Amino acid sequence: MSETEILFDLLREGVSPAHAVASCGRRLKEAGFEKINYEEIWNLKEGGKYYVNHHDTTLFAFTLPEKKEQLETEKKAPVIRIAAAHTDFPCLRIKPSADIRTNSYAQVNVEVYGGAILNTWLDRPLGIAGRVAVRSENPFVPEIKLFSSDKNLLTIPNLAIHMNREVNKGVELNKQTDMLPVMGLFGENEGETDYFLNFLAEELKVKKEDILDFELTVYCREQPEFIGGKDEFISSPRLDNLTSCAALVSAIIDAKRAEGMNLIALFDHEEIGSRSKQGAGSILLHDMLCRILENLGCGEVSRLLYQSMILSVDVAHGLHPNQAGKMDVTNKPVLGKGFCIKEASSQSYATDCEAIGAIQQICDGKKIPYQKFVNRSDMPGGGTLGSIASALLPVKTVDVGIPLLAMHSARELMGRSDQQALKDLAEAFFLA
Questions:
Q1: Superfamily of domain 91-220
Q2: Highest-pLDDT range among 37-46, 341-350, 418-427
Q3: Which of 164, 305, 373, 397 lies at a CB distance of 3.0 to 4.6 Å from 316, suitable for a disulfide?
Q4: What is the DSSP letter of 277?
């Protein structure tokens, strides 16, 4: 399969962080990676390939050297190479006690997750996906069911221009009152109690009273599509950041390096700050590396940790043809011209010149196209997980990613060829 086909599969399947992790886990399993769990005793083997699913929404995968002594030999190149991305995306999340009845309309109470462009969610077919906790015999181990609707369930209708003549001058949407999706109509004799839970119980084939709680994402059900006279672009929901997840899984599968350790970390909760038990702001990455090295019987683990390098992979901003003035005056990445190396003197991107030099030499040697992104000096941009992860594991770090237009829209736009460039970079990083 081409990298574009692999990406399309993940975009269709990864309709919630849990579904994205499940999809990536299936690919790793099919490629011969062995699943292990945090709470179990590990018996790692030299030359082994493993993956870990953490709370369903964060995933690690790693490959080990043929001989553990290869990790303990001091080398000029990092023997431990880490690439990180995130599984979550801006969206709407369903609140508990979700039912709202407005006259005969059945609506669902939601909250905004991350920095979504709210008006792009209006008038689109929306689905529901995520995790549901169901009653079990052991109260400490509820049964967790993954759910994804197989049809269009919701929509958030715009207000007609006849009722808002100023709409084309811009409208501020209230997150509580304007973003409530419509799910259906009540019949004349139909009660209003537990409309949503009744639906969920029927879909899951469980008793309504056995549903304990849920983490459910309202997602855009539109499909990824090629756009352009020569199919130069890809338009799709969830490009931020499933492009990176797809590329990193491909890279760790294809990069067969016998003399060192490769590891990918696909974290949840980047869009809300990363500081959670599933996020890059936790001890997860540091703890994972220590446990691997200790299990292999490596000596002086703390020294080995500093023989690492991190590739933080998240999307970047591309030059907007209608808003060229929003881009930096000399650094103007364009869709389809390669991935971006992201720099910021504020260290919102964790890149420094030494680490950039290493990545540029890798790309130049492999003829992998790349560009550089820097924010306008009067327009501070967002950050990503690289600066957070590298504060907890202080090693050389580079922030990179595919340039997008309409980032954080319900539907985003990228250059078709950039996915291959990103995958090629990650694989070359693991192999160089």
A1: Aminopeptidase i, Domain 2 (2.30.250.10)
A2: 418-427
A3: 373
A4: T
